[in-house]
Amino acid sequence: MKKRVFLLFLFGLFFGLSHCKEVNRNKPIAKEGKMDLSSWDFNKDGNITLDGEWEFYWKQTNNGTQIDSEFGKEPKYIYQTVPSNWKGVDWFGETLDGFGYATYKLKVFFPPNTPTLAFHNLDLSSAYRLYINGKLVVEQGSFGINPNYFEPSYKSVLMDLEPVSGDTEIVYEISNFHYSKGGLWESMEIGERRALYDKVNRSYLTTSFLAGSIFLWALYHLGLFVMRRQDKASLFISLFSLLIVMRLLTIGERNILSIFPDMPMDFLIRLEFGTIYIATIVFAYFYRLVFPNTVGPRTMWVLYILITPFLISLFLPVAVFSAKIHFFQIFLISVCVRITIAIIMAYRSDTVGAGLSLIGFSFVFGTVVHDILYQNNVINTTNLTPFGFLGFILFQGYILSYGFTRAYLSIEKLKERLEVSNKELNILKEGLEDIVVERTQELESSKANIERLNEFAKTLNTSLELDSILTKAFDYLNEEVYCDSMILLLVDSDNSKLIYHKSVVSPNSGLTLESKLHGMSFPLDPSAGLFYHVYKRNRPFRFAKVWESRLNESNQKFVQLIGKHPGMIIPLSSQGKVIAMLTLFSTQKNTSFSRSQLQLVENTAENIATAVTNSILVEEMNREKFIAENARMQMENAKNEVVKLNEFTKKINSESSLSQIIEEMFNYILKTFEIEATLLQLIDTKNKELYTYNTTIPTYATEEQLLFAKSFKVPLNEKGGIIYKTYARKRALFVPKPPKKYESELDEQIFTKLSLTSFVAVPLVVQNEVIGMAYFTSYQKPMEVTREVLRRIAGFCDQIAGAIQNSLLLQITEAERKKSEQAKAEIQKMNEFAKTVNSQNNLENILAEIFGFIRKNYKIEHCVLYFLDKEYNEFRYLNHSGFDLLVDDNINYFKSLRFPLREESGFVYKCYQRKRHFYMKHVPKSMPYAIDKQITDKSGMKGFLISPLVNNDEVVAMAVYGINDKNIQLNLEEVNSIVGVSEHIASAINNHFLLKKIEEEKQRSDSLLLNILPKNVAEELQKKGRVNPVEFENVTLLMTSFPGFSQLTGQLTPEELIEGLDLYFSRFDEIIKAQGMEKLRMTGDMYLAAGGLPLGNFTHAVDACLAALQIKDEVNRMIEDFKDIPFRPNGITIAIHSGPVVAGVIGKSKFNYDVWGKTVTQTQAIRRGGVGVPINISQETMEKVKRLFHIDNQRHINTYEGDQFPIYELLSLKPDLSDDTGSTPNEKFGRLYTQQKRGAKILIK
């Protein structure tokens, strides 16, 4: 039966997929934009679809028969298969999007005498115009090349064609800005008019038939739900059918547009997608109601979550949610697969109607897969899903009829059973009196059994011993159920075992059975067989016959011991937990236990279990009581020992002497543990070994033994043998006898030289660090040390370890204190010396103090200092001490000595490289370096110390100390002290050179500052760090410029421009300085100077005019003299103006002394407006100098504010005040100038 159902399922599935293959493959197809129908007979061969390769023009429009050329170029096109869409097409390296417009063109060769034709195509995406031979035939929607002039339409078209024959050009112009993909996604079909109209009409009728059938089916199931509201499956299959009807009307020919022709296309697409979205989840919930055991709520929640994004997307633009249709198709296939699995699972569990449902659903599954392939242009057929749902409905109707038939059969069977039950009820009514009598007798018998059981329970409760309980239980059960043997097995929960405890067996079993059973146990797992089965179920088991072949290995062994007898296995439970197993059996032949006997034993087992539990509790209580009593005794002993040990601890903690602590330790060990020999070793961290600090002297120990005990050392490595292992493990060790084979040579020496028979080694641990080892032995006498004694010895050693550590720390602290006092005295001496040195500023005096300090404290007479000359990379002579002991030639040798930074410079170079001192106590006869040999020979040194003088991690000099007395030898502290003194020399030398360098830099800085600032301003800036701004009531400004400078700069290189400006401005500097004026700044071709600041005077206007005349003459001279330089200005323009200004310094890192005010801007205006005149002065300046200079040519210029401003031309000095040039003053001018200068006063605010 199941095979047939499966075959029918495959038939339904392949029914849907069978339409996937192409039919009539011998029909002509278009190739390279051409299709030959010259041999096609439309009357005989029927209709034909114009499928194949069409010419595809992207973003190009058609004017009837010709494609427009773009900018005079040939139009580009590719061949695209129809039906398909253009999304994802490769257009000359560009991947096309779904939005855009294109033209499809096909040339068709019709046969002569072609009958009247019609054409039909479904919707295209999503607006188009159709041209045949350049004539517009039809337009759907509004074709547009951008969204503003575009309107979609998804209507199908069926219309007649004008007579055609021969070559015919068919052109589609398609644009899409609405759907996610565009193009000729449906075939254009051409055929004889009547045949094509009949075909389309059949399609309409088929769709109407399917829609009507499914709609009636929906109404039928809706009626079933109204009559029986509990049948929700009928409601959901009705809703699903209605959604399918709506879906059917919105696809294909879109029949719904015949009913609602004005329906918006946007709403039509949303309706098409929405119906299938909702139908999918409704269909899945229908199967949830039909097969609730295989389609669970978790599956539905997953489907709800996955369908939600698709439902939400319906509120987005059509292009957005239509682009996601592939994801929904995957989801739809997944839902179909899940429903198929659910139906198969229901079919395997023999659910009613599952087989028929599987066959019906196969039609849906197959057609859904077919339509997905069709929608993605994989195949070119038509929508088959409605036919699949029709097949599903037919099988669903059969399932419904089958259910009704089963219901009627069930009613008939219930009717027959009811009649039989009535007859039986009458019979029972008649025999009710007999039943009452029988029940009364049974109740009396049960009462007697209960009374006997109560008496048995009282008997059990009077005893607490388990063996007595077992004996009484056996006597009772032997009398009631006639069993002659009983075995008790106790449950060991800790070890998960069933352990034999006691048995009462029949003499027929033999006298050795009990001994054989003793020690038997069974694991509480399946390997225990029947015992585990009874334990796990907590229910009794009765067996009348033993089938040994059916038993596992452990049960077979048990049967072999007791024999193949009928019996029972009873679990003894207390508070729902099995505590023991009771096995009853009878050795008599032809006996068996009845169900009533099993029930009696089961009732009795509750009392036995209670008694056994009480007995076990009493035994555990007695055992715990005994353990507690032992623990109390041990606590008393431990308390006494702790008190004794605390007293000892107080005593040793009050001692600070290590020897006294160890003496107390030895006495305590002797008194407490009667161990005569004790040896203490401490750690030498420097040499990483244990050395003997102290030991007892037993009377029987020989001198050789004591000498070895006091002198032997234990290396802290593998050579240390068992003592090192004990040290590393930090745990006490007892060696009861000498080992047969020694692990190290030291172990053998300890046992043989000390003649040991046994000994104890205990590490002394403080804060998890071993500080020493304690050894306890009796030499030749063997020691008996239990674990408890070893623990007590280890505890004692833990107590004294801290005291020993503290005593050692006190000794170390005392030694460090003495060293600290010595160091303190040394530091105080050095501080006094440092104060003396630091009070000196002169390098000679500092070195004299240092040399005197070294001579006084270290008896060193000779010391020569060499400083590092970085320019020549060598050490040169700086200063000396003790040269009075040498002859003049040797003195000159040391002063002229050089130490290049090379290997040949000997120990000096080595000390420089390492930045460390070098001390040689005795000078050998031969030296590794020639220069060192010369030094020692000429100085007569017996020893020497070379110390590099380091400052800021850099060697600045080298000190060579010579020791002439061979009896003087420096220790490490003295060497370090001299090196420390040398640091003061390094600082002094470094400071000397730094001060010298600072002084040079200061002079350079002052010189630079005076170059950019007036002297008094610079002094004020140096003293205060700032300069107060000053307002001058009257100064004169001189400003120059070169006419045509902008054009000149464009003709010169940067080098030529700077060379010329430097030549002229340098000469201006000399003239300005000679006239007592202050240069302010240079900008471009502008040169600005001022007179009357920073110190005021009455000659500033005269000074400016004199400087202007000299600058004019100097420029004219330089133009003539320096004809070879490219910078050749066209003369010079000079502006002079007098008035108030504000002067001050601006800038932080780069200072600039400048002036501000209206006078400055007016001077700039004079410079700008005075082009063509060499020297222009203002009226204010003219009033001040008119009696000394020749002035003419008054005119007016506009200031920056737009005001009229009078200016004058300065021609020369007056004839009686100058030489023939008119620029150089004579003596008369000098007298007048001096008179005006003497009357000057500083007019400033």
UniProtKB/TrEMBL annotation:
Domain Guanylate cyclase: 1036-1167
Single GO biological process annotation from the record: response to oxygen levels
GO molecular function: adenylate cyclase activity; guanylate cyclase activity
Residue spans crossing the bilayer: 204-226, 233-252, 267-289, 301-321, 327-347, 354-374, 386-409
Source taxon at top rank: Bacteria
Sections of the chain in a coiled coil: 618-648
SUPFAM superfamilies: GAF domain-like, Galactose-binding domain-like, Nucleotide cyclase
GO terms under cellular component: guanylate cyclase complex, soluble
Signal peptide feature range: 1-20
Keywords: Coiled coil, Membrane, Signal, Transmembrane, Transmembrane helix
UniProt-listed PROSITE patterns: GUANYLATE_CYCLASE_2
PANTHER family given in the database record: GUANYLATE CYCLASE SOLUBLE SUBUNIT BETA-2, SOLUBLE GUANYLATE CYCLASE GCY-32-RELATED
Protein name: GAF domain-containing protein
Organism: Leptospira congkakensis
